[in-house]
Predict the structure.
Amino acid sequence: MNNQLKFIAKRCAFVLTFTGALVASRTAYSQVQMTPVRAIPKIVGRVVDENKKPIVGAVVSVKSNTKIATATNNSGEFILSPDKENEVLLIRNMGFQTQEIKLSHDIKLPLIIMLTSTTDQIDEVIVTGYTKRSKESYTGSASSFTGEDIRRVGNRNVLQSLQNLDPSFVLTENLSLGSNPNMLPDIQLRGQTGLDDVRGDFSGNPNLPLFILDGFEANLQKIYDLDMNRVASITILRDASAKAIYGSKAANGVLVIETLVPKEGKLRISYNGNLNVEAPDLTSYNLTNAREKLEVERQAGRYTSTQPMIQQFLSEQYNAILGDIARGVDTYWLSQPLRVGLGAKHGLYLEGGSADMRYGVDLNYNNLVGVMKGSKRDNIGGSVNLSYRSGKIIFRNILNLNFNKSVNSPYGTFSEYTRLNPYWSPTDEFGQTKKVLGEFRSTPSGNPTYYYNPLYNASLNTKDFSNYTEITENFYAEWQPTKDLRVTGRVGFTQNQNAAELFYPGDHTRFTEWTGDNFYRRGSYTMTDGKSTAVSSDIFANWTKQWGKNIVLVNGGGNMSALQSETHGMAAEGFLNNRVDFISFARQYALNGVPMGSENVQREVGILGSGSYAYDNRYLVDVSVRRNASSVFGANNRWGTFWSVGLGWNLHHEAFIKKLHIFDMLKVRGSIGTTGSQNFNPYQAMATYNFFTSSTYDNISGAYLSALANEDLRWQEKVDHNIGLDVNVLKRLNMRFDYYVSNTNNLLTDMTLPTSTGFSTYKENLGSLQNIGYEGTISYQAYRNAKTQSYISFFGSLAHNHNKITKISDGLKQLNREKDERTDNLTAPVIRYEEGQSISSIWAVPSLGIDPATGRELFRAKDGSTTYIWNPDDQVVAGVTDPKLRGTFGLNLEYRGWGFSTTFRYTLGQDYYNSTLVNRVENVNIAYNVDSRVFENTWLEPGDRTPFKRITVNPSQTRASTRFVQQKSDLTLSSLSAYYDFKWKNLKRYGLQNLKCSFFMNEAFVLSTVKVERGTDYPFARSFSFAVQTTF
Amino acid sequence: MNMKYLYLIPLFFIAGALTSCDKWLDVEPNSQIKSSELFETEAGFKEALAGIYTLMTAEKLYGKDMQYGMLGVLSHEWSSFSANYNEDAAFEYGSATAEGRITNIWNGLYQAISNTNNLIKAIDAKERIFKGDNFKIIKGEAFALRAFLHFELVRLFGAAPTVDANKPAIPYVTEYSAKQTAQSSVNEVYSLILKDLQVAKDLLQVDPIFTGKEVTEMDDNGYLLNRQLHLNYYAVEALLARLYFNTGSYEKARIAANNVVNSAKFSFATQANMLAGIDFTGAPEHIFGLQINNLHQYANTYLSQEGTGIFSLNLTTLNTYYESNTSDYRYVYLFASGTGVNASNKYLRKYSEPNTQLLYYRNKSALLKLSEMYFILAGSNLLENKSVVEPLNKVRQARGVSAITVAPTDPTALYISEFRKEFFGEGQLFHLYKRMNRSAITGTDKDLVALKAYIFPIPVAEYEAANRNPNR
């Protein structure tokens, strides 16, 4: 059965490849026939702009006979065979001045032709992943960044840098995991398009944009681990006109990333080295010291009793601690598991070759060291990039290999340390690490509560790591039969093999309460491994035609892809010996454990047609249609159609604007279209059976339906409306502004069923969500001097997004009820879904503050009455966590090789539920350390007017209350860099072509209107790095 | 060859690729089996059928609560049970614990129904893949199962037909789909059950238990060997007897019951086997019984003094039930005495591990058994004011009790008393009380009729999501 499956998969996947191969062979044939030996030499050349960047798609023709023509390829290169000698070549490209070159016998080949642009803007190219479009003629909302841009605003990873460049691209701040190097960030592009994964319906983050790396889909991990130095450009596709070509996966936006194409020439070696320093940022912590802490405990009544016997006993415990403090015990626990992380990153790049055959070899090593002792992420990778041209055919191949190892700190989570009392000492009088830090008994006969030392665990052989090996092979073939037509075929293959291990020896403090029969079960070991394989291929044709003032571009083709992944694992227990750390030393498998495993198969096909038309470079139209089918959709809804229409008007080409001599660019554009998102469980739409594994019936192991299938299940559909404005004034002031309204329909939600159907819920496309927002960027070049290559430019950006649930299903209403009735994690507000409200709403009961008479919190009930009782029905929307405005600003400057640039990130007017105040001030468990604010602001006796309740021996549980909703505005110095480029020095004598030394500082500080503990499970870090770039 | 035509080849392949795509997109998971893939083979149908029976063996259904658990508590046959059944015992169906159990029964039975419907939907198209009579037998069983499961639901969630046959009851679901099925009245449900049973009966004419065809281990791995574990031909006949009896068609009930009794396919457990501790549930008398893998384990937990949440009797009550009759095999062999502080307690051994490795006697729990046919005969007589003595004596004598020779002064009381002895721990007594619509029962001072105790409320989730009419 399975073999047959694989066979079908292979057959289908290879059809397109084979098609591509056939096309290739067809051209190979024609090559032989159509290039008879002639005396007139072929003209080989390269078309570049003023910055020596290649111009793609420039038309090169013979002046006397424009039928003999070709267009330049991705590297700006062309080959032309004139039919006569001493012809005149005509080189044209939109936005550039047309140039003529007289050919002669002794002309030096290859020709390097530099075109001068009509405006400064035109060299900007939008890479859609299928084609490259000049920005001037494009109607979509897209931003392009070069590798240089990306590297200037950060050196950690491309995602971090993008957030500093584009206001619509947001990495949501993770206050819990801080700067953990092994935490993949959560990304939103233009807000949330889907509901949070409340019941595990999604196979990943529902808001994750689609990543296209060198033409093929890539996952977040791959982009996170991508070597920044390999990046040539990144394009963010935001609106329907830009992204609809990616159909059912594009609703959350698309990031198109291209890596460097090797340059021809003699062998060049570039080296890039970074030394990174990560320093923990603990400024957000404000904990009590030993003496203060004991005082808090005393005030809370921990050492007070009405019974003299017990009072005596409690006083003894109090005095013992006081004695320790007097001896000088005041441990600063926060620093115990932390360090200054020293990491290094090296990259070596070799490139060269002839115009026909070029190569690029890249080797990189990145050792990312976190601030928690022992936590790190290592990447070692390499790639080989080859391209070969034969006549009208170009082949390109990229082979990439990456080894990753991620290790988590053996010190556990940071929160284990922030709660430890400062009056405990980590070591005993002999300097040995203690296992038990202290104990407490409330009565002489009571059971003691023990407090364990997490540092002790770090001295054991714990293991917590994962690793993966990924191999990617991408092959491209391009054939250009005529000057107007280009056919591209691509095949990509990625295989990822991963493993993870988690081991706690028996002596770990987590097992101390395992006694009796369970004693021998102490120690646990979990091992998992997995493999995923992705194959995709596509074939596309591009056709361009220009006549008179008309330019038409048509693009069509199809693609196919398949993804398969599986994981397996097992858990074992019983490791009593601290010296062994191998799974085979286990006493047994985990109690009642069975092997674990999961698997997933997804396939999809699509066909795409897109076209654009421009009249006189003034009136622009883009249209695209994509038909797309995926195995994750229900059988009745396999195929979806996605489309877009975009219109643009280049006002700066109109005579009445031209006359003003102000605008070098003034474009208005608008688009509308649909895309989908399908990040959901791959087998959700099918009726599937599971088997009873532990019982049989009449010697047969029975099968039962796992869920109610929805054969109509389909993608969430997003309809984007976008209008935008691009402005350039006097080549100095650059502005972009976009306004959008996006409606996500068919939200995938649970629908409550009458249980007489046999099931309580099933997945339905119900509900809709609306996102409205605007975003803008502005940059101004205040000073420019081409001779000294000096400039100063300022930039700024802003973005706003607001979402609203416009329709909701019964399933979600049911979910709200379930959440109100939950019994765990009571102190955090819940995410509730209600029509007309934002999905980022904070739901809380209106609070009237702390009653000075009783020290209890007073609430306002729905009917307006005052009550002490917290009732979930009284909850109101107390705020929305989306900021009113967010963005960046900063400046870039360079003067005679010295450069400086800085980026600030800001958010304004964000509502925020201050969980630090809830959990570390008000609901503190006084057995552990507390925020020093408990001192001033907690209620002690009648008449006290305080913001917080009384601290008691047993921690209270404050349910969601408007008392803790605060307005938050942040300012982050997200990047600061300074460099010196030795281009003004004569480096040749040292054998160097260039040399650049840089200094970076990332996330240097955060100013916030709200005081919260940032990085509770893993602290935030400031990073500094020194970098050297050179080419031999 | 003209080069021009080479262009056609890629086009041909693209066309080919797109047409075969729908099949290619139909992925088949490894970690679970697609319905369509399962029903490619006869084995798949057998697995799906076994799955339905396995679903019924859950603790919340016939593993415990629909046998000696909740239904035992509701009929007040136990003298002692775990405190979390206190609300059930007081018939407070709105309380969290009782409501939870009622919801579990509803959801569990409907889950089994939904699985049955998916099997029925698939089977007709696959008739050719079945060997021998398996198509008819499996399809017949599936229809019988659907009828049986709805019958169980209407017995709990519908009014007794003799009390109010027109009251809205349950939806009779015949489709695996998210579509909601309309609620039917008690009467309508019974006629739908009858319809399915008749379909089943026709199909099961080929059942070897009926035809007498010999089946050995060698035939299809002995698939048709253990017909008592399946809803076989006689189980359908017995269900018809139960249905006619419940709806007051006593003559039809008698015919059906006699068909089972006279088939001589079922016999009472022998004293020797009971004495030896080999046969506690009376394996040869099962017309239909479930094979519950954890039955003995559940019994250890809930029905022995070593367990927790124990159901037990005290000596006095047991003596009252069985009139201290030491010649009654059930009294003698089916109860164990406690030891130490539990010395005055009696524990039901019916579901305990038997003293044999023969699978025929292990892990079995009767859902329909021979003696019920005699009680239907007796009950029909009782309700038509005829003598109950003769059928009841059949059972009494089989259990070692002497025959009644004098006409009883209170035949109803006799009937109930004999019924309790026979079906102790099987959940049937509650159904008997319900059919009789008794407001007062032994063991409680509550008025069951006034409390509407005989009709479970439709679970909230169903009631709200489907806008059901009140069934009580």
About this structure: The radius of gyration of chain A is 32 Å.
